[in-house]
Amino acid sequence: MYMTHYMELLSTTSNLLIFMALPVVLAETAAITELIILFSKSGSSVLKKLNKLSCIAGALVFTGIDLYLIREVVLPLTYSSGWYGLVDMLAVFFFIAGGLVMIALGVFSLNIFALRYGQRAQRGIRIGLLSAFLVISHIAMIAGMADPRIDPDFKAQTEVSSAVSDSEGSALSSADLYHMHHH
C-alpha cells in the first residue's frame, strides 16, 4: 500500500498518540468549550479555565510537533527530493499550518491582546482561529489519507527506483523496492 509521509508518521501507536490523539483532544476540547461558553448565559469559570488550558497546552504541543516535523521531515525530504509528490507535501504542510494556527490561539489565550480588543472581538478572533484550525487540519488529514500515486509525478519517482534496480541487475524484491521508496 502506498502512503504519504503523513500516514507513515501515524502508522505507529506512539506516533499516533503524539501527533494525532493528543493535539486533536486538545483542539476539540478548545472548540467545544468555546462553543459552550459562547452560547451559555453565565459562562462557567471552570469551562473558561478548561478552554484556556486546552488552548495553551495545544499551542505548546503543536510548537513541539511543528519544530520536530520541520527538522525531521520537511528539511530532510526537501534536501533529498524524497517527497512523493504534491499531495504528500500538502498533507505535511497543512498539518504544520494547523499547528501554527493553534499556536496563535494559545498566544491569544494568554490575554496579551486583551487591552487592544474588546471581549466580543476576542471571542470572534478565537472562534475564527478555531474554525481555521478545523478546516486546515481536515485538509491535512484528507491529503494525508490520499494515495500519493494520484500525483502524476509519483509514477516518475517510482520508475526511477525500478529502473535503477533493473539496470544494476540486482534481485530486489517488491518488498525491497517498497522499503526503498517508503523510507
How would you concisely characterize the structure shown here?
The chain has 183 residues and is mainly alpha-helical. It is built from seven helices and no strands.
Primary descriptors:
mainly alpha, 0% strand, 183 residues
List the helices and strands and how they pair.
Blueprint: H1 5-9, H2 13-39, H3 45-79, H4 86-109, H5 119-145, H6 152-167, H7 174-181
Helix pairs in contact: 2-3, 2-5, 3-4, 4-5
Average the pLDDT over all residues and give the rounded result. Answer: 84
Q: Characterize the main sheet.
A: none
Coarse structural class: mainly alpha
What form results from the Cα inertia axes?
elongated
User: In percent terms, what proportion of residues is strand?
Assistant: under 5%
Folded structure, characterized:
- By secondary structure, the chain is mostly helical.
- The chain has 2 domains: 5-150; 153-183.
- The chain is 78% helix and 0% strand.
- It has helices at residues 5-9, 13-39, 45-79, 86-109, 119-145, 152-167, 174-181.
- Helix 3 runs antiparallel to helix 4.
- Residues 160-183 have low confidence and may be disordered.
